[in-house]
Amino acid sequence: MMWSEKYRVKNMDQFVGNEQPRLEVLKWVKTWIKGTKPLLIMGPPGTGKTSFIISMANFFNHDVVELNASDFRNKANLESIINPLLNNSSIFGKKLLLFLDEVDGISGREDTGGLTFLISALKNSNIPIVMAANSKNPKIKELIKSTKLIEFLPLSSFASYLLLQIILSKEHKFLDMDQKLMLIEKSNGDARTLLNLVQSKVEGKYDPNKINPDELPIDECINLFFSVKDISKAKNVLNHSDILYLSPMYGSSSEERIRDIVYAIFSSIVANEKKIPPIFMAKMLDGLSKVDLYITKIYKKQNWHLLRYANDVLISNLFDITRNMPIRYSQYNIPFPLIGSIFIRGQSTRFLGKTLSKIFHTNLSDIGMFYILPLLSILKDQNYQQILFNTQDDDKLNEVISKEKERLRRK
């Protein structure tokens, strides 16, 4: 079991770090009355936002209704879920507290109305409302104005040291001071990362003092991954590299983005496109999109323990189809926000492809290679406005088709 899950804080007296922000949150809950501004807690992953809200609600004997706001991005979804809650103050005599996590993941597009509805609906609520966000995303600036903002910072070195001492004591393990300081430095104030690093260290899976040659840099990792013939060697390459699994949904430093394995593989495949037959290119990008979906779901649901299987997911989707392909590492010069939009577009067209594969009774790769482009061209030339698929996703499918037709018109 991952220690980040085993030692997830459940009681108020177990937290370390962010003492003043936590005290402000407690005062807000203690003095809450109808008309009080909703609370917005902002801070990077691993600072204890979610765990603290849940433990605090339990301490004050509140029933917590926890929603991941990014899963209910538009007005219709938010309205159907939130409105019934805002009109009730208790369940079975216990006070309610609504906790909306990842509000920075709500769609910022005006046509979906998610943020506009949320700002309006949270005024004069019958129950206390707490929201959490990872960063000051510009698209939620109006939401920020409508809330009381409290910021959680990455753990200080001292707080990280206290947490490390507590965990080592509970596990009856010992590390010398140099080892502790190295782990604290590499965790960068993220409690979850610190717990995973110290677990790997005491279990003999990780040595922070041996970055070279045990930790392969991203360029060597990519080149070796595409060149080895044995699947066990490919997994060993990934396990002994400095790669990261990140999500475009969250801000990261340029150094971290360079080490993102999904980004690195994508840029390397695209940069070598002239050497790769189109059918294999399609299969590679399809496999990579599955890895990207897996990582994105982990970030959205915060199921961090599933990251341990990311290398296995990557290998199962990419190893066989990339053998004997002339792919070398390339740090592609597309900025990452654009890379993110490419992945998002790929996911939407894949959704369309899956639907078409059922209609035409063929596989997804053939749909991508032989069907979609001619179909879109016909729909564009004949000026079809709406296609009936006879599914509950007709509106979403037609939205994808409309966007793809518009791209064809611009070419």
Strand content: 5-15%
Fourth-level CATH superfamily of the largest domain: P-loop containing nucleotide triphosphate hydrolases
Query: How many domains, as an integer?
Result: 4
- CATH architecture of the largest domain, by name, is 3-Layer(aba) Sandwich
CATH topology of the largest domain: Rossmann fold
The N- to C-terminal Cα distance equals 52 Å
Oligomeric composition of the shown chains? single chain
Which CATH first-tier class of the largest domain would you pick? Alpha Beta
Global Rg: 24 Å
Q: Tell me the total number of β-strands.
A: 6
Average pLDDT level: 78
Quickly give the structural class. alpha/beta
Q: Which parts are unreliable, with pLDDT below 50 for 5 consecutive residues or more?
A: 206-214, 333-340
What is the string of helix and strand elements? HHEHEHEEHEHEHHHHHHHHHHHH
The number of helical runs is: 18
Fraction of helical residues: 40-55%
Question: Shape from CA axes?
Answer: flat
Biggest β-sheet strands, sense, barrel: 6 strands, mixed
